[in-house]
Amino acid sequence: MKPKTKNAVKLLVKLLLTIIALWIVARNIALQQLGELLLSVNYLWLITALLFFILSKVISAIRLLEFFKLARLEISLKYNLRLYWVGMFHNLYLPGGIGGDGYKIYLLKKYFDAPYKKLIGATLIDRISGMVALCFLLLLLILGSTIIERLAPFSWLVWLLLLLVYPLSYLKFIWFFKSFRSAFIRTSWLSMGVQSIQLLSTFFLLKSLHVEDMIFEYQALFLFSSIIAVLPFTIGGVGAREIVVLLFYNQLNLEEHTAIAFSLLFFIMTAFVSIFGAIPGTEPEVKSN
Fold it and tell me: What is the pLDDT of residues 94-153, one digit of tens each?
């Protein structure tokens, strides 16, 4: 099978899985009630959530620039921000939310003729750094919510994982990404800032849906669903998050329609911000020195 045909088949399979996931969600919720909830949002809180989300993406782009510098790729912050938005746009329809990274690597190779190995390494370690911070915050939310009561027999494991997340992450830098080791502390703080600000964004998003209780539980379920959405099963993670919500909302005593609306609103907010990456001229013609 030719590469183009193989890629097209993969894309069609993922599109089919996305449609099936959304169909399952639609069959298990009252769409009218979900629609009424979405229409009743508090727009002041929603705009606040949007602003914090944008801020988190700016810091995320700054973190990626730190890794690019260690890869000896000299680009401006302005160009990197614009490139980051291009990647976000392509992540909307490419599988697993990582396809945009491949497109960024393509552009950097095109304009700067940088080694693919260095570009892939910088992009991969950037993704891992963000995931480590996300997992750390997820464990904190579990410990600070009623979820830990349901995991009582395994609470020691949650504490152990919390203590080991960053030491194991540092070992990863030493063993697999030696050339990026000097940026570990700096980028770890940036990653924590990114994920913490996104948590604030989700807090305001929940406030826009008039949620007053179980905030940590909603956020923990959202972070867990975000981890699952990274897996390349659906297009841009759409449907994957909602399936996770359907599977676990009841165990956490969360309101089903609010949990689904929360997930959908976050995707809509992401799509709205990402769409600016499609504006002509967003991919500047930058020449290497």
Answer: 655 556 777 788 888 877 777 888 888 888 899 899 999 999 999 999 999 888 988 888
Q: Tokens 């990863």, residue?
A: 172
Element (H, E) at 72: none
- Residue 184 neighbours by CB under 8 Å, 6+ apart: 169, 170, 173
In this structure, are residues 153 and 94 in contact, taking their beta carbons and an 8 Å threshold?
A: no
**58: closest CA among 88, 26, 30?**
88
Residue (of 282, 273, 277, 278) closest to 47 by Cα position: 273
CA distances from 286 to 82, 85, 124, 132 (A): 12, 16, 23, 32
- Name 95's bridge partners: 235
Look up the pTM and report it: 0.80
Residue 69, Cβ neighbours under 10 Å: how many? 14
Three-class SS of residue 95?
strand
CA distance 108 to 118: 11
C-alpha span between 109 and 54 (Å, rounded): 27
235: helix, strand or coil:
strand
In the chain, where the domains are located:
3-278
